[in-house]
Amino acid sequence: MEIIFSETKDIPQEAILNLYRLLHWSSANKPDALYQGLMNSHSLITAWDGDQLIGVGNAISDGSLVVYYPHLAVHPEYQGKGIGRRIVAKLSKRYKDFHQQVLVADGEAVGFYQKCGFKKAGQTVPLWIYQGDEH
């Protein structure tokens, strides 16, 4: 298995939808918005096994001070193989000098991100208006 990581945004919409559907993420129910959101990201890292998209992570940023990582999606059959960690490392390296690198995690993802160097943000409480149902 040779996994290729890429920063190109030349990704077929159906490849993204297939991955998000496998993960049962509600954003797959808004295919055009999901695709445009990822394509408009400040940074986008993908992982491929041949022509199959197996991982994606993105960043939204002001370009100078703050970066937010909204998505990290890894194909279920490839989880636990270091793909998510490598995507996070590539994004973190790009934004290493920024004042804040921010994300929201829940469930098992909290431990994963802690292993990647993220820490609970003091006494902050995440707040949102959310139209999904998987949390």
Walk me through the structure.
The chain is 29% helix and 22% strand. It is α+β, with helices and mostly antiparallel strands and 135 residues long. The chain has one domain (3-115): Gcn5-related N-acetyltransferase (GNAT) (Aminopeptidase, 3-Layer(aba) Sandwich). Strands 1, 2, 3, 4, 5 and 6 form a 6-stranded mixed sheet that branches. A hairpin with a 2-residue loop joins strand 2 and strand 3 (52-61). The chain is globular. The N and C termini lie far apart (32 Å). The mean pLDDT is 94.
Gyration radius (Cα, Å) is 14 Å
Mean pLDDT across the residues is 94
Let me know the CATH homologous superfamily.
Gcn5-related N-acetyltransferase (GNAT)
Order of helices and strands: EHHEEEEHEH
DSSP strand content? 15-25%
Low-confidence stretches: none
**CATH architecture type:** 3-Layer(aba) Sandwich
- What is the terminal-to-terminal distance? 32 Å
Quaternary organization:
single chain
| CATH fold annotation | Aminopeptidase
Number of helices: 4
Largest sheet: 6 strands, mixed
Structural class category: alpha+beta
User: Number of DSSP strands?
Assistant: 6
Q: What portion of residues is helical?
A: 25-40%
Number of domains: 1
Q: Write down the overall geometry.
A: globular
Name of the CATH first level: Alpha Beta
